[in-house]
Prior knowledge:
By secondary structure, the chain is mainly beta. The protein has five domains: 2-159, no CATH class; 173-238, no CATH class; 249-366, Lipopolysaccharide (LPS) transport protein A like domain (lipopolysaccharide transport protein A fold), CATH 2.60.450; 367-427; 447-680, no CATH class. Helices cover 9% and strands 57% of the residues. It contains eight helices and 40 strands. It has a 14-stranded antiparallel β-sheet with strand order 23-24-25-26-27-28-29-30-31-32-33-34-37-40, with no helix packed on it. Strands 10, 11, 12, 13, 14, 15, 16, 17, 18, 19, 20, 21 and 22 form a 13-stranded antiparallel β-sheet that branches. Strands 1, 2, 3, 4, 5, 6, 7, 8 and 9 form a nine-stranded mixed β-sheet that branches. β3 and β4 form a beta hairpin. It starts with a helix and ends with a strand. Keywords: Cell outer membrane, Membrane.
Amino acid sequence: MRFFSITIFFIFLILCNKNFTQGALITTDVSQHPIFINANTISTWDKNGVKVFLAEGNVKIEQGSAQILANSVAAWFTKVDIAQHVEGHMEIYCEGNASLFQEGIIENYEQIYLRLVTSAGVVVNPVNVPIKSFEEEQKTEVYLRGKKIRAEGREEFAAKEEPTVGPPVSISAEGEPIDIFADDIDTWIEKDVRVVVAIGNVRIKRGDETLNADNVILHLDQEKSEKDKPPKLIYKEMYAEGNVTLIREDDLIIAEKVFENIKEEKGIFVNSTIRSIIRPPIFRVETPVYIDGAEIKHRGKGQYDINNGRYSLCSYGHPHFYFKSSRIRIFKTPKHSIATAKKNIFYAGNLPLIYLPRLSFDLKRRAKILEDWETGSTSRFGRFVKTDWDVYSIAFGEKMDDWSDLTLSADYLSQRGPALGLDFEYAKTNYSGYMNTYYIRDEKTTDINSIPVPQKDRGQFLWRHRQLLVDQEKSEKDELPTNDWRVDIEISHVSDRSFFREYFQQELKTEKDRETIIYLRKIYDNRGITLLAEHQLRTYDTLVDSERLNRKNESLPELKYRIIGEPLWKGKLNFTSETEIAYQNRVFDRISPEIEEQFLGRGASLTAERVFDRVPVRLEPEETIRFDTDHTLNAPFSIMNVRFNPFIGARFTGYSESVRVNPVTQGNEGNGTPRGRILGS
């Protein structure tokens, strides 16, 4: 009889335990099936021997024939030893469009809290990103509500009402509300400073930021306001401690302690981790990166410094692989999130493998590290590989990426050798420009059409810059009037006259010649003044397959003043004028007879008449001063819808030297007498 009573007692105990864990919402026994959890994102951590799962987005929990759907789920899983086997017990809190499917019946709720038991384990399947593991609990609203229900020991329930949230203490600082949730809240005023102390399960919402912590102290400056109006509060300082999590834009900051000066946007995080997101196309999907340090300093808006920090893509508290750096800096703007690290050592576990002196990457950068590449084979280059790399995806982006682009060209041509180039393009409010360089150590002896390679080291340099000379105050306000001074600068150098024809035929055929000039102008109303100075860094035209292989004037400098359509005599007459004085080098291309034969003696495909403006004698470079003034007065009128525009004009042009004709050879020579000419029309 005693044995029978003990047996009945154990059976009753097991049934009671099973009834407690599975509860009444699931009406069929599905304990022999595993529990499947599917969701867009799933995170997990361990707390006091309990495995916690937090699932967000299209959550589906399935066990046997029973299914649960919801927007968000918090679940607590424990193992229980019963007799000779182990069972798993899971407590589940579901929230947001929650549905329960079983035995062909669908029931819809807003909240569901239930218990499941399984003897076959749990299978977790995140859809979008890998499961995220944390060492500290993640205090989301769903988790905190489920944690409270579980701590109260409540029975299973399913409710169609949305979860109720206790009324917060709301403070308005500078017109922006600050909502404070906590177990206990106290506030008082000390010397025109309102102090708010929140203790226990604190959650503070301000704009897009959410702060969770065990305890928080807020300081708000209290300024006097108008009569009969409450004082104005200014959010000044915040101190939080104990399981601190701060959600700020795309970042999640986890810390033991946090102090921030809100007014100056500065602060310090103790034993902290920053989780940010690396966006495509750097990786195919959004990938979290974890940056942690014993002390993280908040230097200003979007700026963080970490000494002796660590960063990794591994979400474990002790990551399997990571970089350890002497200093990490994070610089965030609306368009970019740039991390720069110095003295980096890559670890696999505890084993150091690689040292890199500097790393920099943009977590939001839209461009790829490898921007473009091309491979192929030609008779002139042999097999080749050409690549363009976005330098700011690797380094220097934290200071320059907002206003410039830097591209590194790294090429290899099997018959010519390796080549490198840099393209730097930039633009700010009052200036913009472009710099291009290319260098190759040419290993071949001849160019196209068997023209000898003039030198081994070949390349080109080009810088074009435009500057608007405006007041700093106007520049900062983006007020750029068009009638202020503007300067255009171009500096260029090409190693030899056949470089473009050999390596950059597209530029040869479509671009203007490379020059070295400074052009200053001011245009206001119908008047303008310009100053041009040019002096080339080489003695030949770079585009040899064009008509510009001939004489060309250099201005050192050239000053012009123009008036266009100035109305006179109550608008009946219009006056137009242009006056110029210039110091010029009137002969430019100094092609030698040998080079002329190589470039021009190629038959009908490129005739001398098409390319070269021949004169009886090639003149040596000579300078001359030129003065020119041209004036026109016109009187437009209409008769029977026919418009007439009679005009008169006068022009005077003078030179300090003229071309003198040798009476014996009839050839042109320099050093002629000064000469002027007057024209009328």
